[in-house]
Amino acid sequence: MRAQVEMAAQKIQNFANSLGKGINFVVDTSSGRAVIRVTDPSTNETIRQIPPEESLRLARMVDYLASLLVDQRA
Questions:
Q1: In 3D, which of 10, 16, 14 has the Cα closest to residue 38?
Q2: CB under 8 Å to 35, separation ≥6 — which residues?
Q3: What is the C-alpha separation between 19 and 3, in angstroms, rounded?
Q4: Which residues in the chain land under pLDDT 70?
Q5: Three-class SS state of 4
Q6: Strand pairing class (34-39; 46-50)
Q7: How far apart are CA 5 and CA 35, in angstroms?
Q8: pLDDT by residue (tens digit) across 23-44?
Q9: Cα angle 41-57-21, degrees, rounded to a multiple of 5
Q10: pLDDT on residue 72
Q11: Are 22 and 39 in contact (CB under 8 A)?
């Protein structure tokens, strides 16, 4: 599943590159979620990220806490 998400993100990124826009499609390494970043092409500064970084941190924390519960039950 993760490989499919990464492949889809790469295809979308290739399309965005062909348009010459500052849009980046990546897969967050720790959560495996697709992330879209809109950047200023002249400064490479992130203008907007979907989902926001806070959401990714929350997802990582939930995954970590869930793994602790599983470890304790085993």
A1: 16
A2: 25, 26, 27, 28, 49, 50, 51, 56
A3: 25
A4: 1, 20, 71-74
A5: helix
A6: antiparallel
A7: 11
A8: 888 888 777 778 888 888 788 8
A9: 15
A10: 65
A11: yes
